[in-house]
Specification:
mainly alpha, Fumarase C, Chain A, domain 2, Ribonucleotide Reductase Protein R1, domain 1, two-stranded parallel sheet, elongated, EC 4.2.1.2, Fumarate_lyase_N, lyase, fumarate hydratase, Fumarase_C_C
């Protein structure tokens, strides 16, 4: 040890701890550990989830389904478009995290007690940041204003906020999957998620979407952690934040929860889901909202009447349109083609305006 080889008495305060304080060491440790957890665990997990979504979306690129707004039937889209929105959410989350890390990497080490750097060598902070960068392969830098890094934890609160946004995105994705899987007979039944359990403990054959449900719970925990971190961040009275242990524990657990559940969602749900084409195609054929494409040609009121009649008579909208729109079969086949409607725009035969 240093004490046994120094040839003189080593004092823990006079020598070992002369140039540092828990006041700058602990905030530095929070920043280093959180930065590494995001870089080594969370970002790779998000990339894996996004790649899995993109792969499944590409494979289902030509499968058209009913879109939904307000949980009601809406214009059609492809599975690739629906999955693509999830992927874009995750890409945005990655970008926000990358941006936050630019501030989190500023280390207050060397500020010692309150930020003045009393009893510390002037180069201590820069040398520690350089050594940590070399050891970890991640970028760290000495904070220009060490008073800020000790008195406040705004950068940690910001990171927690980005984790909160990611939790929101994961809940949205998980709940979409739950709705799409609902049924299998009395719900939407668009997809079939893999069975990861024998079934309900009392209802034989009932298989629940346990991974999306676990995702929702993990994300809810992250949201709770963020509320606590936000309150803790307010506890930076004058020159020291006194809630550092809470910030550290919640921040690191949130990163781990999101990392783990992202991989589970990718490998145990999205990679293995099956599309129930019979249900998807049947719902699309009955969707009266396809008539929206006729608005520019026959007008909103006439299109609405066709949609309402199709719904009331439980008939495909194209059948009613052939009877009531005044358009030819060829025109309707083109205008009401669900695959063409996923491309947007004003379709052939429509007037300007």
């Amino acid at each position: 040890t240093l004490a046994s080889t120094a040839g003189r008495t080593i004092h823990p305060n006079d020598h070992v701890n002369l140039g540092q304080s828990s006041n700058d060491v602990v905030p530095t440790a929070i920043r280093v550990s959180a930065q590494l957890a995001v870089i080594e665990d969370l970002l790779p997990a998000l990339k894996h989830l996004r790649r899995t979504i993109d792969k499944r979306g590409k494979a289902l690129g030509k499968v058209v389904k009913t879109g939904r707004t307000h949980l009601m039937d809406a214009m059609p889209l492809t599975f690739a478009q629906e999955f693509g929105a999830w992927s874009s959410q995750l890409a945005s989350a990655e970008a926000r995290l990358d941006d936050t890390l630019k501030r989190l990497r500023r280390l207050p080490i060397g500020g010692t007690a309150i930020g003045t750097g009393i009893n510390a060598h002037p180069q201590f902070g820069r040398k520690v940041a350089r050594a940590l960068s070399t050891m970890t392969g991640a970028r760290f830098e000495s904070a220009d204003d060490k008073f800020e890094g000790i008195a406040t934890q705004d950068d940690a609160v910001e990171l927690s906020g980005q984790l909160n946004v990611l939790a929101v995105a994961l809940i949205k994705i998980a709940n979409d999957l739950r709705w799409m899987n609902s049924g299998p007979l009395g719900g939407l039944g668009e997809i079939e998620l893999p069975a990861l359990q024998p079934g309900s403990s009392i209802m034989p054959g009932k298989v629940n979407p346990v991974i999306p449900e676990a995702t929702v719970m993990a994300a809810a925990q992250v949201m709770g952690h963020h509320t606590a971190v936000t309150v803790a961040g307010q506890s930076g009275n004058f020159q020291l934040n006194v809630a550092l242990p809470l910030i550290a524990a919640n921040l690191l657990e949130s990163i781990q929860l999101l990392s783990n559940v992202s991989r589970l969602l990718a490998d145990s749900t999205i990679a293995r889901l099956k599309v129930r084409r019979d249900n998807v195609d049947a719902a699309l054929a009955r969707n009266p909202i396809l008539v929206t494409a006729l608005n520019p040609i026959i007008g909103y009121e006439k299109a609405a009447a066709i949609a309402k009649r199709a719904y009331a008579e439980q008939r495909p909208v194209i059948e009613i349109a052939r009877e009531d729109s005044g358009l030819s079969d060829a025109e309707l086949d083109t205008l009401l083609d669900p695959a063409e409607l996923t491309k947007g725009g004003i379709h052939e035969g429509a007037g300007g305006g």
